[in-house]
C-alpha cells in the first residue's frame, strides 16, 4: 500500500520527498543540506496506549477532523506523525519546546504539500487546512493553532484545484 506524508507547513519552498512504495509505513525525506529523517503516516489500526510519559509527538490534522476552539481531541489519524526521542518538561514551557521542535522538523522538509497530503489521507477533502497538534508527556493531542495557511482539496488520493463556490 502506497503512503506519503505531509511535511510542508508555513513556508512555500519545495524540496524532494519520497513516498513509501513498500507499504511498511516509513517515508524518508531527503532535502538538500539536511540529514534524512524518518516521517510516517500513522497506522490505520489502533495502537495500545503508551506506558509512561509520552515523548514530544507532532501530528498534522486536517480542519475537518476537529472542532475549532473545542477541547475535544481530533478525530481519526493524523496525516503526519513524528515522535521525537528527546524528552521535554511536562509543563507549558515543555509544550512550547515541543511545538518549536515540530516546526523545525516540518520547515526542514518542504515537499509538494498537496500531493503528499492527498496521498496520505484515506478520504476526499474540500477546502480543509492542515493544523499542527502536539503531544507532550500526556497521551492527549494539544492544538497549537498553527496552520499551513492554505486550503487543500483532494479527490481519490490526488490533489485537485479547489473549486470556486
TrEMBL record:
Signal sequence coordinates: 1-19
UniProt key word Signal: yes
Annotated keywords: Signal
Protein name, per record: Follicle cell protein 3C-1
Organism the protein comes from: Timema podura (Walking stick)
Lineage, opening ranks: Eukaryota, Metazoa, Ecdysozoa, Arthropoda, Hexapoda
Amino acid at each position: 500500500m502506497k503512503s506519503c506524508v505531509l511535511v510542508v507547513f508555513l513556508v512555500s519552498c519545495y524540496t524532494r520527498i519520497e513516498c513509501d512504495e513498500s507499504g511498511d509505513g516509513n517515508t524518508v525525506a531527503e532535502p538538500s543540506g539536511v540529514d534524512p529523517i524518518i516521517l510516517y503516516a500513522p497506522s490505520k489500526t489502533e495502537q495500545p496506549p503508551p506506558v509512561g510519559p509520552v515523548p514530544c509527538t507532532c501530528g498534522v490534522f486536517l480542519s475537518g477532523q476537529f472542532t475549532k476552539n473545542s477541547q475535544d481531541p481530533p478525530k481519526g489519524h493524523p496525516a503526519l506523525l513524528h515522535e521525537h526521542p528527546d524528552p521535554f518538561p511536562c509543563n507549558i514551557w515543555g509544550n512550547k519546546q515541543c511545538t518549536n521542535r515540530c516546526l523545525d522538523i516540518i520547515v526542514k522538509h518542504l515537499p509538494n504539500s498537496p500531493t503528499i497530503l492527498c496521498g496520505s489521507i484515506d478520504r476526499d477533502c474540500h477546502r480543509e487546512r492542515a493544523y499542527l497538534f502536539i503531544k507532550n508527556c500526556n497521551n492527549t493531542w494539544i492544538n497549537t493553532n498553527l496552520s499551513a495557511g492554505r486550503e487543500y482539496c483532494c479527490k481519490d488520493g490526488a490533489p485537485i484545484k479547489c473549486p470556486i463556490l
